[in-house]
Amino acid sequence: MLVRVFYHDKCFDGACSASIFTRFHRECIAPRLNLDPANIQYQYHGLVHRAGALFDESTFAPAPSTPTQNAIVDFKYSPSPNLTWWFDHHLSAFLTPADRAHFDRSQLSPTGQPLPPAQLTKFVDTSYTSCTSYIAHIAQTHFGFNTAPLADLIHWANIVDGALYASPTAAVEMAEPAMKLTLIIESTQDPAFIPRLIPLLTSLPLADVLAQPFVAPLLPPLLQHHQFAINLIRQRAQLHQGTIFFDITDHPMEGFNKFIPYYLHPDAVYSIGLSKSSFRTKVAVGTNPWTKIPPANLVNLAQICERYGGGGHARVGAISFPPDQEEAARKAALEIVTELRGQKP
Ligand SMILES: [Mn+2]
After folding, report:
1. Which of 24, 55, 143, 341 is found 20 to 30 A from 134 (Cα to Cα)?
2. pLDDT at residue 255, rounded to an integer
């Protein structure tokens, strides 16, 4: 049998979800299908969010002369008749109401009765912090999967996907193997890397995964870049009236850890960063996740960003400008800085 596992690409929770799904399938589903796990081939395919159709139906096609199952984990639903398994925990799990209705029908027998839990193969629950923890829960309660050896992996998938770091130091100093693996997973440009990593995530402790010869050498240059970003933001960040502003457009970079401003200035409430990458100039507007200010007294940053054509959530938002509109981006950033410094929280 061929099992194709489609997972949220360049995401720690996506890779862990693919790994835990594989182990669950091998330990619980193969015996139900009377298959020797040695005769099952697991293949991994990363999925990214993009405009329009997310899936090319042909990628789910049955393999010639081999029984095939397709699974999607930590990513949107597909109504493809060739989709066997689906697990997601995102609010935006369905692209359309028709997809939602298709999913609802998959929970019923041909006569319209709710299927017993052990016959369900498609699952969504937005109350789970990580898809990894959701797969573990369903696999354990519906199929008798033993999740005990995976407790550490599940713990870290929740911390990373929920950004539940204990402190700015934990978020920025990245002492834990899970955070170092996250840094590598989010920045890899090698399409073969994550598929190679996935099977190891549920067969080795995370520290041992990080020590693999194909993993370990990737870390030092990323940590070096991270340290460069910390030093640059340290030089530029100005904290006044609870709001940090920094402009690093003269050092274009594809990304940096968004908790750095609060690591440098733990007393700040808001942070506005102006930065530049190959494809945009970005105004990033955030609230310190560790602020002691009660949520009711905090400004809704999504509303501010929407005024400038951006968006986001109440606590964190962003506005993207084309790379050649740096001055417009700077003007917007400085207006927002003035507005937030005028707030009395
Ligand atoms: Mn996730």
Report:
1. 55
2. 85
